[in-house]
Amino acid sequence: MPKISVIIPAYNVEKYIEKTLKSLIDQTFKDFEAIIINDGSTDNTERIIKEVLQDTKFQWKLINQENQGVSAARNRGIMESKGEYISFLDADDYYHPTFLEKMYNKAKEKNYEVVFCNCSKVNENGETIGEPKQKKEYYGIELTGEEVLKQALIGHVYICVASYICKKKLLNEHNILYTKGCTHGEDQEFWMKVFFHAKLVNSVTEKLVYYVQRKNSVTHSSSIKVFNHVGAMKRVFNYFEKQKADNEILFLFKSKKIPEGYISCFISLSRGENKENKELLFKFLKNNKIKEQLLAYQPESLKGKIQLKVLLYFPRLFYLYYNKIKN
Predict the structure, then answer these.
(1) What is the pLDDT of residues 117-161, one digit of tens each?
(2) How far, in whole angstroms, is CA 315 from its chain's centroid?
(3) Which of 1, 50, 141, 319 is the most exposed place for a label (fewest CB within 10 A)?
(4) Could you read off the pLDDT of 183-206 as tens digits, one per residue?
């Protein structure tokens, strides 16, 4: 049985998948399996995967399926996996050569259920374009999963889809899967449930993941689908309510995470080239429930306060700013 299963969903990523797979080939830790789910690609993704991995020494499996979306692809990978731990790697991101070794060694220090690490945001050329905001005091120490979740909601810890490994047993015990059909926020919904149920968590302080920011990715979509993100956060909130989560976690979701999700969606809509997005923006802002949540939101930074005021009271200026100036 491999120590770690690396799950990679792939859809029309012929330009990126080779670099992602080569980061697995270069791993100093070899006791792992790679499960690549080719989710109905219509380009050369499948051919490139086979060519790059044909002479590799680690275990790997290529699963071809009709296009069902990233969430269904990751769920298929979970079901097919045999590792003690699971990690997720998108087909345009990549690992530092020591990622698996350092993450697994940290996990086995005290049988941690989840281990996370730092990451770097890079462009398609591998150039660093931003560092996630985080506080060093929450890295490299033993924490409960709920404590990590709280700090992530506050903004002191940054987690992305590829920056943690978790025990498969934890997923099975709590029936944690990705929400099929969700295109935005599905990764956050998943890892938030993972950390919520994890009793013991630790981290590696180094930056071991390269999180690629590309303009044409699903994450940067400017269609109405971006509101999947808010839906995902509401599902997590309801889930935590049923699980009788700490009041502070529920408060942070209601007063911070969900309103921030709406603002992020409005920014994405504004950046789109579709003229209908402008009308959608104004339509959603007239929704009383959405407006109530935004009015109750209190950003910490001056920039955030100005952004919120402009959105609520000068929505056309908000749209113009992100559509013409910041786009």
Answers:
(1) 999 988 888 888 877 778 889 999 999 999 999 999 999 999 999
(2) 29
(3) 1
(4) 899 999 999 999 999 999 999 999
Rounded Cα distance between 209 and 96, Å, is: 6
Delimit the domains of the chain by residue range: 4-218, 221-325
Enumerate residues 6+ apart whose C-beta is below 8 A from 136: 205
Q: How does residue 216 score in pLDDT terms, banded at 50, 70 and 90?
A: low
The pair of three-digit structure tokens given for residue 18, joined into one six-digit string: 């080779």
pLDDT for res 273: 72
Q: Where are the beta strands (DSSP E) in the chain?
A: 4-10, 32-39, 59-65, 85-88, 94-95, 114-122, 128-130, 164-167, 201-212
For residues 7 and 88, give the distance between their C-alpha atoms in angstroms, rounded to a whole number. Answer: 5
Of 122, 103, 100, whose CA–CA distance to 113 is shortest?
103
Q: Could you please report the per-residue DSSP string of 140-204?
A: SS-B-HHHHHHHHHHTSS---TTSEEEEHHHHHHHT----TT--SSHHHHHHHHHHHH-S-EEEE
Find the helix packing angle between 288-296 and 258-271, rounded to 10°.
110
Other C-beta atoms closer than 10 Å to the C-beta of 255 total 15
CATH homologous superfamily for 4-218?
Answer: Spore Coat Polysaccharide Biosynthesis Protein SpsA; Chain A (3.90.550.10)
| pLDDT digits 0-9 by tens, 261-293 | 999 999 988 987 777 888 888 889 999 999 999
Dihedrals φ, ψ of 3, to 5°?
Answer: -70, -35
Q: What is the longest distance spanned by two Cα atoms in the chain?
A: 60
Encode pLDDT of 149-161 as tens digits: 999 999 999 999 9
Q: Is 263 exposed, middle or buried (0-12, 13-18, 19+ CB in 10 A)?
A: middle
Q: Which residues contact 316 (CB under 8 A, 6 or more apart)?
A: none
Of how many residues is the chain composed? 327
Task: Return the DSSP state at 138.
Answer: G
Query: Rounded distance, CA 110 to CA 313, Å?
Result: 52
